[in-house]
Amino acid sequence: MTAVPAVLKPSAKMIWLKERLSTLSKWPYPDSAPCSARKLAETGFFSLQLEDEPDLAACFVCLKQMYWEKNDDPKAEHASHSPDCLFVKINKKEEDLTVSEFMDLYRESIINYKKMYMNEVLNKLRTQRNEFSELGNTKSR
Question: Mean pLDDT for each 10-residue chunk of the chain (141 residues)?
Fold first, then answer.
């Protein structure tokens, strides 16, 4: 089990297109590709900036992590893999979002991060419980 990457911790700055785009400065696909850095950022994604996985990006709201190929359509892929994402549901460009929608997106990103973190904690506790249970079974033999 891997830990929740620190880069997924909610950040109000990821609400802004320019901030998400800045994380994609080393994006492996050209601006002319269907899966360009701009198109990815416009659909809510930012780069996790992992040297060994340059095509891995996550949505700042739903935290869905995806690997991308040059000809992927970011908007269609986001909707397909994470249809309940609030960013997908709102489906607006940054300049068309209301203040309330910005706040909703940020709040949703915090909720999703807490869910991911708590699932990690629960999984670690389950693993420890199973290890203790196995240890007890071994001693009683």
Answer: 54 87 93 96 91 89 94 97 97 95 92 87 85 71 57
Q: Does residue 101 fall inside a structural domain? A: yes
Tell which residue, 57, 81, 55, 80, has the closest CA to residue 69: 55
Kind plus residue range of the DSSP H or E element containing 11: none
Q: Structural domain tally of the chain?
A: 1
**C-alpha span between 46 and 109 (Å, rounded):** 13
What is the reported pLDDT for 10?
Answer: 56
CA angle 103, 110, 25 (to 5 degrees): 85
How far is 84 from 109, CA to CA, in rounded Å?
13
Is 1 a domain residue?
A: no
Angle in degrees, CA 46, 89, 115, rounded to 5? 65
Q: Return the pLDDT at 124.
A: 85
Helix (H, G, I), strand (E, B) or coil at 76: helix
For the domain that residue 114 is a member of, what is the CATH number? 1.10.1170.10
Residue 2 lies in a domain: no
